[in-house]
Specification:
alpha/beta, Rossmann fold, eight-stranded mixed sheet, 17 helices, 8 strands, elongated
Length: 392
């Protein structure tokens, strides 16, 4: 198994974007936060962008809240010149910012007040992922941070942002949108008269289906497409190329479990298909192995023998030497041996899962994080994760 050198990755000034993706519940958000903190304390100016709606990132960084504006994280060691900011994507606010940036104030307000726009910006399929690309492009364009760490949504939807530009672009370029916007684009009175007649028939039919008010909202929204939203696809394409470019690295995050590694394999394959630069796999919550360990079978056999001795001693009313605590001691040792056997079985299962993954994907470099006794909920916990990632 090839060892992924995380410190080399985050110390490299050529590494400008790190995208963490993976299924839910594998520690992806914690990994992104730990990477951001370690990079900052090693001298990088970092911003962590989370798209995951969970609040764990804010809590672990000591922030009361995260929103669409990067917030500086305090209690970070900045002696090497680095800094750490964090933010959570606000899909609608990002959409609103685009409107405000690309329209004059009067038209921008008309769009922001438009009910159809409000519905589109809040719930249209793919909008969140598209806005994530918009925000990533905005952060990169400022040049304020030399490393952007992106924490994506859980499960396979984490890679939906790769499809978002095409999905939203297909909607904006769709047949209905083109028909509704056609009068503004057709030259010649004859053509306009003919089209207007056709539009009258269509809008009459549509009014019966969606209602007059909604149709009016849609047409008003469409009228602003050319001037306000014309750059959507162009910006999305630029961000997509940014994700493929030198300086961007994807980290697939998983746990040594069957389902999580199956999802990880999906991410690896998908990234390869999209020709996205994969740095490697971060495997969280790995139980460490020890050479010369007592096997699970021998541990269970010894536990069973001790339990039988304890039962015999109890039936005899204690040991010949009068030690009344001896049966309890035997049972305690037997319980510890049983726990040891269960741990070894977990380790063996993890090793099989890991070996299976690396045999299918021998080209993927791996960094491992040992299982911790509790959850990570503060900067010190994130430092422990970062140390494990950096030193192995």
């Amino acid at each position: 198994m090839n060892r992924l050198e995380i410190d080399e990755l985050i110390d490299d000034p050529g590494t400008r974007i790190l995208v963490c993706c993976g299924s839910g519940g594998v520690g992806k958000t914690t990994t992104a936060a730990a990477l951001g903190l370690r990079a900052a304390e090693r001298g990088r100016n970092v911003v962590v962008l989370t798209i995951d709606p969970a609040r764990r990132l804010a809590q672990s960084m000591g922030l009361t809240e995260l929103d669409n504006t990067p917030r500086r994280v305090v209690d970070v060691d900045e002696t090497k010149g680095g800094s750490l900011h964090a933010m959570m994507l606000d899909m609608k606010r990002t959409f609103d910012e685009i409107v405000e940036q690309h329209a004059d104030p009067e038209r921008a307000q008309q769009i922001l007040d438009n009910p159809f726009y409000q519905s589109l910006s809040s719930s249209f399929a793919g909008t969140q992922e598209y806005m994530a690309m918009e925000k990533l492009g905005q952060l990169h364009a400022t040049g304020e941070w030399d490393l952007i760490v992106v924490d994506t949504p859980p499960s396979r939807s984490a890679l939906d942002f790769l499809d978002a530009p095409q999905r939203l672009g297909s909607f904006l370029d769709g047949r209905l949108i083109r028909i509704l916007s056609a009068p503004a684009k057709v030259g010649g009175r004859g053509a306009l008269k003919f089209l207007s007649a056709g539009m009258g028939l269509m809008t009459g039919a549509l009014s019966k289906v969606v209602g007059t008010h909604l149709l009016t909202d849609i047409q008003t929204f469409v009228a602003a497409l050319d001037t306000t939203f014309g750059g959507f696809r162009k910006r999305a394409d630029a961000t997509y190329k940014l994700l493929q470019a030198r300086g961007t690295s994807f980290l697939v995050v998983a746990a040594p479990e069957k389902d999580a590694l199956r999802e990880a394999a999906y991410f690896v394959d998908r990234l390869g298909t999209e020709r996205m630069p994969l740095a490697g796999l971060v495997l969280n919550r790995v139980h460490a192995t020890r050479a010369g360990r007592l096997s699970a079978e021998r541990s269970l056999a010894a536990a069973e023998a001790l339990t039988e001795q304890a039962e015999s001693a109890e039936e005899a009313g204690g040991e010949p030497d009068g030690s009344a605590s001896r049966p309890a001691d035997l049972r305690l040792v037997a319980g510890l041996l049983t726990l040891h056997a269960e741990r070894l079985r977990v380790i063996d299962r993890e090793e099989r899962m890991r070996t299976r993954f690396t045999s299918i994907h021998p080209e993927v470099w791996v960094a491992e994080v040992p299982a911790l006794p509790g959850d990570v909920h503060d900067l010190d916990g994130l430092r422990v994760i970062g140390e494990s990632l950096g030193t192995g």
